[in-house]
Amino acid sequence: MKDKAKKMKDELQRKSDQKEKDDQKARDEIQSLKTRIQKVEANDSKKQQESIKQNQKNEKFEENVKHLIDKTIGLENRSRRHSIRITRLLEYHNKRKILDVILQEIIQEKCPNIIEQKVKVEIERIHRSSPVLKPQLTTPRNIIAKFKNYQTKEKILQAAKKSFIYHGITVRIPQDLAASTLKDRKAWNMIFQKARKLDLQPRVNYPEKLTIFLQGRVWSFNEIEDFQPFIKKRPDLNRKFDAQTQNSSESPKDIKKKNFSEK
Fold first, then answer.
1. Which residues does 110 contact at the CB level (< 8 Å), separation at least 6?
2. What is the pLDDT of residues 21-34, one digit of tens each?
3. Strands, E assignment, the chain
């Protein structure tokens, strides 16, 4: 009987010891898992910090690149501050007259008051925007003229604000600017046309800032992304802009059909 009791006691002790070992093993595995999780979390945190730092470096790099690009564009525009462009003048005019003579004729016709009588305006250089005429071009190359005197250039721009007729051709004389600046200014065209139809007195100022006159004050916008939320906050104006868009998108045939159906 004693032997049986002893065996039972030993068996219980063995099971207890085994359970203790199993529990300890489980605790060790849990602790090991916790340690691994902590390491993973630490690595993730480190990677996140590194990612944040890298993003900050990238943003700084992009800012520096943008600054350099803007500075380069600014320098290019500054180098063109004495220059104008003559647009839409057909290529065949070159064959009959040299560009210098054409420009002098335009100045005599459109800006006679800015120069002394019988005095030729001093031009540093004048040329087409591209040295080679490409057959695939559907529009004539611009003429770029650089003046020796900045004030002369400004007076010509003021005198020739609107397009005019030269030998039967509608010609414009805008400021000569860098290609990227011209592209940015061109992006305002649709909004500019709508604003002008709504009598908002739009202007595109140097380098590519749009201004409008509304509610007794001048509003300026550096980018289209700035203009869009401005319009959306003013439902009445937004509806007018939408109406202008619809009207401009309708062809003459569509308008005739619309009028006929209304009758």
1. 156, 159, 160, 164, 173
2. 888 888 888 988 88
3. 83-86, 123-128, 143-147, 164-166, 169-171, 203-205, 209-214, 217-221
Q: How far apart are CA 110 and CA 31, in angstroms?
A: 90
Q: What is the pTM of this model?
A: 0.61
Yes or no: say if 211 and 205 are a contact pair by the CB < 8 Å rule.
yes
For residue 82, give every residue at least 6 positions away whose Cβ sits within 8 Å of its Cβ, in sequence order, or none.
124, 146, 147, 148, 149, 150, 153
Exposure string over 242-255, b if 16+ CB within 10 A, otherwise e: eebeeeeeeeeeee
Question: Of 177, 187, 105, which is closest to residue 142 (Cα–Cα)?
Answer: 177
Half-sphere exposure of 73 (CA within 13 A, CB side): 17
88-144 pLDDT, tens digit each:
888 876 665 788 888 888 888 877 776 665 567 888 999 998 877 777 777 888 999
Q: How far apart are CA 131 and CA 17, in angstroms?
A: 96
